[in-house]
Amino acid sequence: MQFQRTMFTAIPLPMSVDDRQREEKRQRRRTIVDAAETVLDEKGRDAMTMADIADEAEVSRSLLYVYFENMADIVLAVTHRGFRAMRERFEAAAQQHDTGRAQIRAVGDAYVRFSREKPTLFRLVAQFESRAADPDESSERVRRCLAEADRGLQVISTAIRAGIDDGSIRQDLDPRQTAVTLWGATHGLIQLAANKGSGLEKRYNLDPGSLVNNGLDFLGRALADQDGS
According to the UniProt record, which residues make up the DNA-binding region (predicted)? Predict the structure, then answer.
């Protein structure tokens, strides 16, 4: 006797009331953060008001305080989004290359693109990093930003470790310390080009874009194994 195989299509179970409410809250919170990012792009941090965010999100101002404590809390939520976007770009860039040294250069290029394509998020990340924050004495949202920043740095240190293992990066380097050094140097180059670009061109005849690119080349050579390329 032959049996005919029957194909069944899985039917998703309906969401419970609690699940639906949680999803609605997540979506509303996301809408508010989207609105804040848009207003930050248009007006900047100093000019932004809670009314601006409420208008952009099409919600009442009182509803903002249901999801966030204050303006600073909303800005931190956008900042966390910036750290996450930066880390995701780092990961995507590193995954496209085989050697650790090539991964490091790709991550550096990704950081430069992030600063140009997402200037508001880049500024928020830079402002957050410029302030000292003790995880043990910080709010939950600050701790989330710190954790996401650490994950981004881990992408760099992992690439350095891979480079040490594959021979494209010097054996005498400490991955974590070198990762912090590379991040600081690259961040400084980006800030220098962005803030003093016109002055560099007038005083030294230096193209800001070339300055950053040459700086990344220099950092790559500094990483290279002394017996390698």
Answer: 49-68
CA-wise closest residue to 187 among 134, 110, 100 = 110
| 205 within domain boundaries | yes
Whether the pLDDT of residue 111 is over 50: the answer is yes
Backbone angles phi, psi at 228, to 5 degrees: -105, -165
Per-residue pLDDT at 208: 83
Final residue before a domain boundary, out of 68, 100, 131: 68
Whole-number pLDDT of residue 228? 47
d(CA 221, CA 170): 10
Residue 14 class from Cβ within 10 Å (0-12 exposed, 13-18 middle, 19+ buried)? exposed
Q: Is residue 5 part of a domain?
A: no
pLDDT at 17 over 50: yes
Chain mean position to CA 22: 26
Query: How many distinct structural domains can be found in the chain?
Result: 2
- Rounded CA separation 194/174 (Å): 30
- Look at residue 134 in the predicted model and tell me its pLDDT: 73
With a CB cutoff of 8 Å and minimum separation 6, the contacts of 200 are 192, 193, 206, 208, 211
Q: What is the pTM of this model?
A: 0.86
Tokens representing 136 are 């043990």
Q: 45 lies in which domain range?
A: 22-68
SS3 content of the chain, % helix, strand, coil (to 5): 75, 0, 25
**100 CA to centre of own chain:** 20
Note whether 133 and 207 are same-domain residues: yes
Q: 9, 35, 68 — which closes off a domain?
A: 68
Question: CATH number for the domain including 166?
Answer: 1.10.357.10
67 backbone dihedrals φ, ψ, rounded to 5°: -105, -25
